[in-house]
Structures are given as structure tokens and as C-alpha cells.
Amino acid sequence: MKTALTLSGSIRRGSVNQMLQAHMGRKLEAAGVAVTAITLADFPLPIFSEDLEADGAPEAAGRLAELWRRHDIVFIATPEYNGGLPPLLVNTITWLSRQKPSPFRQPVFGIGGVSSGKYGTIFALSHLRDSLSKIGALVVPTLLGIGPADTAFDGEGRPVEPAIIRKVDQIVGEMTQFSRGP
């Protein structure tokens, strides 16, 4: 059975990206995938600095890297801040990129996000795809940008727009069918 790790680049209470993370977890489970949902709040990392790295990576970076290595799929839901990625996610990826062996070489990555704007995190997702690809991640083709956030989900946390529902199914199919090989 395939395994998936889901996380959000937002740790704010009531985050719509955590809602997307939960929805994607349910969809992956329905596709026969064993899902582990995490919050980055459980992996506190100082702001990356090579001076800190010289003293050794934080224990949380090692634990998180090992989690990524043990899963076939990683789904990241991210907000968009000023057309870019949130500092929490950038810092997490930076620390993980320094771990050996690379936690980006095993899983297949899916990325999505929800924002208040009509472009639905598409700028952040493009940045995230580019960053992940440069460090060896295989990111599926579909970018799941959802917006505006205030009308995107029903009361049970499911997307309401038919085009988004189709995109969710498409990215789930890609994440479950793509493989890094043996």
C-alpha cells in the first residue's frame, strides 16, 4: 500500500490550507493510500543559518526528513504571502535540503494552496515547484490553486467549484500513479 504525508505551510488556527490538507488526506485515503497528516508546529526549526548548521542540524529537521523519506507521496498545501511562499515553509525546505540522504529523492510531491485572491496561490505554487525541482523532487504536473478562500469550501471542508473538484481528482491520480521507480 502506498503511503502519503500531508502538511500545510500554515500553522494558523482555522487555516484554509489546513482544510485543503485534510481534504487531500481524505481523497488519498479514498484512493487506497495510508495517510499521515502532520503540522509543522510539531517540528520547530530556527531560522536557517550556516552558523547554526555548523553546530549540527536541529533534531526536528532530522525527524521531519526521516518522515519524508518513509513516504511514497508528500502533499504540501501552502498559502501565498506577497506572491511568494510563507517563511515557515521556506525555512522548513531549507533545513530539509541539508539533510543526508536527501528527503526529496524518494517521494512524489503534490502541491496546492488556497488564498483569498482569485489566482489561488498560483505564484507561490510556481515558486514551490521550481524550488522543489531544483533540489531533486519529482513534482506532479497539476498545480492545485484555489481561490477565493471565502467561497472555496462547503461546511464540511470540501471544494465547491466543479473545476477544482476535477483538479483534486486529477492531482490525486497523478500522485498515486507517478513513481520514482524501485
Task: Looking at this protein, list some descriptive labels.
182 residues, alpha/beta
Task: Give a quick precis of the structure.
The chain is of the alpha/beta class.
Description of the molecule:
With 182 residues, the protein is of the alpha/beta class. Helix content is 39%, strand content 17%. It contains 6 helices and 5 strands; from the N terminus they run βαβααβαβαβα. It has a 5-stranded parallel β-sheet with strand order 2-1-3-4-5, sandwiched between helices. Helix 4 links the parallel strand 3 and strand 4. The longest helix has 16 residues. The radius of gyration is 16 Å and the shape is globular.
Spell out the blueprint of helices and strands:
Blueprint: E1 3-8, H1 16-30, E2 34-37, H2 50-54, H3 59-69, E3 73-77, H4 87-97, E4 108-114, H5 122-134, E5 138-146, H6 162-177
Parallel strand pairs: 1-2, 1-3, 3-4, 4-5
- Counted beta strands: 5
Total helix count? 6
Calculate the mean pLDDT score and round it: 95
Structural class: alpha/beta
Distance between the termini: 14 Å
- Strand order within the widest sheet? 2-1-3-4-5
pLDDT < 50 runs, ≥5 residues: none
Shape: globular
| Biggest sheet record | 5 strands, parallel
Order of helices and strands: EHEHHEHEHEH
* Helix coverage percent: 25-40%
Our estimate of the beta-strand percent is 15-25%
Evaluate the radius of gyration: 16 Å
